[in-house]
Amino acid sequence: MQFTAQTISDFLNGSIEGDAEVLVGELSKIEDGKEGSLSFLSNPKYESFLYGTQASVVLVSKDFKPAHPYKPTLIRVDNPYSAFTVLLDKYNERINAKTNEQGVEQSAFIHPTAKIGKNVFIAAFSYVAEQVEIGDNVKIYPQTYIGQNTKVGEGCIFHPGVKIYHNCIIGNKVIVHANTVIGSDGFGFAPQPDGTYNKIPQIGNVIIEDNVEIGANTAIDRATLGATIVRKGAKIDNLIQLAHNVEIGQNTVLAAQSGVSGSTKIGPNSVVGGQVGIAGHLNLAKGTQIGAQAGVNFNISEENKQWHGSPAQPLRNWMRSSVIFKHLPDIKKRIDLLEQEIKRLTSELERNTLPK
């Protein structure tokens, strides 16, 4: 299906510059654009691609000022990246509408006490345990396990190999990617006098609120008591560990390979970069931003502040320190020379002060 630039502009509340009747039928990156495709320009470092792209239409910001001649029709919008994601979502809906799986495939197991909503798809080799409740329009792909007494809201998608343990609560429109585990035991062991460890029973659960997306190969542990909670709108990347009794705030984003230790609470609208380590029993304020590979072992009470480094420090301090780090080898050489000079002058002074 093709659309005119004008139709797309009207849909996005944008304004046209160029041929309003040009047709587009697919989406592309600006560097790979070809005739009949639509792309976007959001990051200034990609601006050079605009002047050579073959894309027919490009979304740009309202205040964008081109430095050179260009070929595509421009649609000016408030935020080209957000506008492009809206189009991606509509494109994805169109594809899914053509492959709208429903029903239960052969070899899937559903316990007789489970309650299954309308228009649900359960793929082969999936397992739905006793007393499970699944809402309408849920898609469960192969080899997914849903443990007893778990409740799943409407419109969820569980990709292949997802494992959800017993008593968990999953909200509406939650997407969980392949091989993620929700509700595994928290890491709780009590040291004994003889040096061994006794396992502490983990009798809580995990609550995932509405509109959360969780990447592949992520583990979210159940609480020792109470619940591990991921608040609505949060986005959890691949390969992330959330320990027992952690709480992730509303609309918070965590990038890959980060780990959050037990009982830590991250405030809403926070951003955690890749490979960040956060110690346990901490509270991080609303809007906290943590740079990649940082280590946080203290409470953060000031809202909307950026932190970098390990141990983490405010962004400005970290930037100053980074400048010094680069010069440490030269500083070491200068210190060595100064020490040698001090030693020489001290020796000379001692010789001059000895009795003759």
User: Roughly how much helix do the residues carry, as a percent range?
Assistant: 10-25%
Q: Strand tally, please?
A: 40
Distance between the termini: 104 Å
Bin the strand percentage.
Answer: 25-35%
Global morphology: flat
Cα-atom Rg, whole angstroms?
28 Å
Total domain modules: 2
Strand order of the largest sheet: 8-11-14-17-20-25-28-31-34-37-39-40
Pick out the low-confidence regions.
none
Biggest sheet layout: 12 strands, mixed
Mean pLDDT over the residues: 94
| CATH architecture tag of the largest domain | 3 Solenoid
CATH-assigned fold name of the largest domain: UDP N-Acetylglucosamine Acyltransferase, domain 1
**What is the CATH homologous superfamily assignment of the largest domain?**
Hexapeptide repeat proteins
Q: What is the top-level CATH class of the largest domain?
A: Mainly Beta
DSSP helical segment count: 5
Broad structural category: alpha/beta
What topology emerges from the helices and strands here?
Blueprint: E1 3-4, H1 5-12, E2 15-17, E3 23-24, E4 26-27, E5 37-40, H2 47-50, E6 57-61, E7 73-77, H3 80-98, E8 103-104, E9 109-110, E10 115-116, E11 121-122, E12 127-128, E13 133-134, E14 139-140, E15 145-146, E16 151-152, E17 157-158, E18 163-164, E19 169-170, E20 175-176, E21 181-184, E22 189-191, E23 197-199, E24 205-208, E25 213-214, E26 219-221, E27 227-230, E28 235-236, E29 241-242, E30 247-248, E31 253-254, E32 259-260, E33 265-266, E34 271-272, E35 277-278, E36 283-284, E37 289-290, E38 295-296, E39 306-308, E40 313-314, H4 315-326, H5 328-353
